[in-house]
Amino acid sequence: MLLERIYDEDLSQASYFIGCQQTNDAIVIDPRRDVQVYLDMAEANGMRIAHVTETHIHADYLSGTRELAQATGATVHLSGEGGADWQYGFDGRRLHDGDTIEIGNLTIAVDHTPGHTPEHLSLKLTDGAAADEPGYLFTGDFVFVGDLGRPDLLDEAAGGVDTRYEGAKQMFASLRDKLLALPDYVQIYPAHGSGSACGKALGAVPTTTVGYERNFSWWSHYVANDDEQGFIDELLAGQPDAPAYFGRMKRQNRDGPAILGHRDRLPELDAGAVKKDIEDGSIVFVDTRDQHEVHRGTVPGSINVPLFNKPATHAGWAYDPESDDLPLVVLADNRELAQMLWDHLIRVGIDDVSGFVTGLDGLPTVVPELVSPEDLTSTNFDLLLDVRNASEYAEGTIPGAQQLSAGRVLWNQDQLPDDGTVVTFCRSGVRNSVAASALRRAGHHVVELEGSYLGWQAAQK
After folding, report:
1. Spatial separation of the C-alpha atoms in residues 448 and 431, rounded to whole Å
2. For a Cys-Cys bond, which of 237, 264, 384, 459 suits 401, CB 3.0-4.6 Å?
């Protein structure tokens, strides 16, 4: 058996390539949308991707299931559980509790494990060449290393109303009846790692075992003592703010992400033509530099998506393709970096990139407004906005600040003054620069706090 973990550091997302080395057939679980990595892996190992599946309708990234099936002819397997509201809108074999997928000597058995979402599946793998019982469990967003998938996400990002309580009860039952019914030696392979917003305290270690979680997880004693209410209370407490773009991901993944097929290499664009497009308002310019460089000058109306700091995540915060359907032009040193950024953007459904430029020469520029911590008290503003997570805000903030996380500001502008000045800050300035650029593009007068919260704290000493 061949088992490979493909990990996206940007979205803290894991997918899995599993192949039978006797028949050279393979399955991919929870693929991302830029699928070349799986095609390359299949070619390198002389395998054919015959099956593709996903554990649930994802919220944090756009699934590559349809894209990979289109590229390979693989059979698609999708959850048929969860009731009428949780059925996929595109073709594929529907999986139910107890079903199996056969790949040569490998057998994948399906467990319905609701909690994170109603349709969620976990996949038990038996390597028939070595054993006649499952040794591996692909848990999606059900069980992580040291944590569990959050059941409040449907309320926070997908328009649900109090679904978190039923989800938490289902999570408790799934742990008791499904996960802990397995032997301790079964290895757990989750869909996310540290940094994901799909849980509150995910471990950085890539895998765990049923036995380890049974003995050392925060939730194990609740299940062992049949303390459902204590479990629910702790599970729901302190969950991080969910980025607003998660709701769009849910809808697109349920209905079926658009298939991109072959994508041409991005062209380098003439600065004069880009200047005209900027002045006409017919493109969105993406400044991929860090906040320090952006603060020395950037294109008016641009959004800041740092190239080497979770670009898919930050792009999902700063740009909504459903309400702003203009093509993007990106700043990148070369075509390879521009192409890399495009690969990340399509993971969150931002597909329309028309090309790149390698510098700002010949383009209009503006210097974003900053205020130093020392000058904050003498500055006139209408709102001091903390764009960190609610948990960070609760631990301490600048007196008088209101909280609205950077991943939600663009979708909650009704919480901002219609006119006047908004001063924004995060912890160090990265998230603040992304959020501020999105709000400026939306027409708000935004001044960034220089050094953000850490700078303000240092100025108090």
Report:
1. 11
2. 384
Contacts of 395 (CB under 8 A, 6+ apart): none
Question: How many CB atoms lie under 10 A from the CB of residue 276?
Answer: 12
Query: How far, in Å, CA of 407 to CA of 393, rounded?
Result: 15
Longest dimension (CA), the chain: 73
Q: Which residues pair with 449 in a beta bridge?
A: 371
The residue type at 241: D
Q: C-alpha angle with apex 11: 10 to 16, nearest 5 degrees?
A: 105
Return the H-helix or E-strand segment holding 118.
none
Contacting residues for 438 by C-beta, under 8 A, at least 6 apart: 303, 317, 318, 319, 409, 410
Distance between start and end Cα atoms, the chain? 59
Q: Is the entire prediction scored with pTM above 0.70?
A: yes
Q: Along the 461 residues of the chain, how does pLDDT read in single tens digits? A: 999 999 999 999 999 999 999 999 999 999 999 999 999 999 999 999 999 999 999 999 999 999 999 999 999 999 999 999 999 999 999 999 999 999 999 999 999 999 999 999 999 999 999 999 999 999 999 999 999 999 987 776 666 667 889 999 999 999 999 999 999 999 999 999 876 666 656 668 899 999 999 999 999 999 999 999 999 999 999 888 889 999 999 999 999 999 999 999 999 999 999 999 999 999 999 999 999 999 999 999 999 999 999 999 999 999 999 999 899 999 999 999 999 999 999 999 999 999 999 999 999 999 999 999 999 999 999 999 999 999 999 999 999 999 999 999 999 999 999 899 999 999 999 999 999 999 999 999 999 999 999 999 999 98
Query: Beta strands of 191-266 (E only): which ranges?
Result: 208-209
* 324 and 367 Cβ atoms separated by less than 8 Å: no
Residue 15, C-beta contacts closer than 8 angstroms, at least 6 positions apart: 5, 6, 8, 28, 29, 30, 31, 32, 38, 64, 191
